[in-house]
Each structure stands twice: as structure tokens, then as C-alpha cells.
Design goal:
Elements: H1 21-30, E1 35-37, H2 38-48, H3 52-61, E2 65-67, H4 91-100, E3 105-107, H5 108-118, H6 122-132, E4 135-137
Parallel strand pairs: 1-2, 3-4
Helix pairs in contact: 1-2, 2-3, 4-5, 5-6
């Protein structure tokens, strides 16, 4: 779900949704300035043994901004996105991305899985996607 400028992140989830207290407390312990980096959200997810999506939703309900996407797609200042197309793409990465496409798109989870399986960085996979013109969708935290 995307957010239009000037809107509250919590509006993505409806007026009756409330942040989970245990997740909220952990977010407050590990963040500052109402921003939560992607890596921290995943650390919280792992520590609490919950899905990253629940952490992202709680952050939204707290009106915390998700930052520093580990794929380089959002949350960097001033340019927002830091991933760049690659001059050349590792053939194994290109094939893995092509094989994992659903409706010409790659999910964030699939991008992470490819990076892990091929032992390359997440940014290598997202950079390959930039070069190939492939959009990454379905952020595991719910940012996009």
C-alpha cells in the first residue's frame, strides 16, 4: 500500500486498528526520530518470532517511517532510492530473477531468497532487477 503525501501511515490500515503493544515497545526501544530502518524491523521480527509484516504494520500504526530498505529501494536521503542498474549482471542472478518472476515482477521475499541462495548481496539482486527493468513488489514490511 502506498501513501500519498500529507497522509498518516496509519490510514493504510483502517480506523479501528491499534498497534500491538509488545511490538510497539520493541520498536520504541530500538529506534529514534520516529524512523525504523528495514534491518531493525527484521531484527525485531526475528527476536519476537513474528512476521516482518506485523512489525511494518505496527510501525505504520505508530506513524513511524520505514527507512533504509535493504534492497536500496526507499528510505535514503536525499535521493530516496540508492539502487542503481548494474553494468553487467551475474548470469546466475539473472537466471534466478527470470525464473522467479510472477507477472513480470519479483517479490521482495524472492529477491532476498535469491541473494541468500546465490550468496550475493541483496543490492546485487535489486541492481540486476534495475538493469533488467524488473519491478520488485510486495515489501515484506508492507511499505510497497
Amino acid at each position: 500500500m502506498s501513501l500519498r503525501k500529507g497522509k498518516s501511515f496509519s490510514t493504510k490500515h483502517g480506523p479501528d486498528e491499534k498497534p500491538d503493544t509488545s511490538i510497539k515497545n520493541e520498536i520504541l526501544k530500538q529506534t529514534q526520530n520516529e524512523k525504523i530502518p528495514c534491518a531493525v524491523a527484521f531484527e525485531i521480527s526475528k527476536a519476537l518470532q513474528i512476521s516482518p509484516e506485523k512489525v511494518g504494520k505496527t510501525a505504520d500504526l505508530m506513524n513511524f517511517k520505514l527507512t533504509k530498505c535493504q534492497l536500496g529501494l526507499f528510505g535514503y536521503q536525499p535521493q530516496k532510492k540508492i539502487v542503481k542498474p548494474q553494468g553487467s549482471i551475474n548470469v546466475d542472478v539473472k537466471d534466478a530473477v527470470s525464473d522467479a518472476l510472477v507477472q513480470e515482477r519479483l517479490s521482495c521475499k524472492q529477491a532476498w531468497d535469491i541473494a541468500s541462495r546465490l550468496q550475493v548481496s541483496k543490492m546485487t539482486v535489486s541492481g540486476a532487477c534495475e538493469t533488467m527493468g524488473v519491478k520488485i513488489k510486495d515489501c515484506q514490511l508492507g511499505a510497497f
